[in-house]
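FAQ

Q: What does a record look like?
A: Structure on top, sequence underneath. For example:
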């Protein structure tokens, strides 16, 4: 027994089995990862085309869209690779000393081994929030000069933030090495 899902595809309602839904969701997600923000209307067009082709596939509105039907429809539209290369939001290496990946791994707050000025606190905070380290350093210097608690915050972070070599990055919260 399979579960079915009521899905709105291209502004048309379909009853889709779970496998077909996952297949279509992965297909559209893969295409979406290959488009930049100026071309997202293409994704809407692809979704509308999927809806049109699914209408042709099913004999009645009560029929369930199966995974095989979804495969035939996506094959007619084309492989996601035909929409271009994958776009990553973080880039591979931006030249700022930070290695970034397209995977969604949780970033840990730590003091890096490279790109340190004093203790690596500003660089670690910048990496965590994905901003330029120079901006964080300027903010830290201004906080110290203006007489706020900036120096104390820096010292506390220096003590509390682990060194990068001490931190183990877990790709999945439930998986430990």
């Amino acid at each position: 027994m399979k579960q079915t899902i009521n899905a709105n595809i291209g502004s048309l309602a379909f009853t889709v089995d779970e496998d077909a839904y996952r297949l279509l969701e992965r297909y559209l997600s893969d295409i979406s990862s290959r488009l930049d923000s100026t071309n997202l209307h293409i994704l809407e067009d692809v979704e509308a085309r999927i809806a049109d082709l699914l209408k042709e596939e099913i004999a009645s509105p009560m029929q369930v869209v199966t995974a095989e039907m979804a495969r035939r429809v996506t094959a007619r539209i084309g492989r996601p690779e035909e929409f271009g290369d994958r776009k990553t939001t973080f880039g591979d290496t931006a030249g700022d000393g930070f290695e970034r990946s397209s995977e969604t791994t949780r970033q840990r707050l730590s003091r890096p081994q490279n790109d340190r000025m004093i203790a690596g606190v500003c660089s670690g905070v910048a990496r965590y929030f994905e901003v330029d380290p120079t901006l964080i350093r300027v903010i830290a210097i201004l906080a110290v000069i203006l007489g706020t608690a900036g120096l104390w915050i820096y010292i506390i972070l220096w003590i509390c933030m682990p060194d990068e070599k001490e931190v183990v990055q877990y790709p999945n919260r439930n998986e430990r090495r």
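Q: Is there anything notable about this one?
A: The two ends are 37 Å apart (CA to CA).
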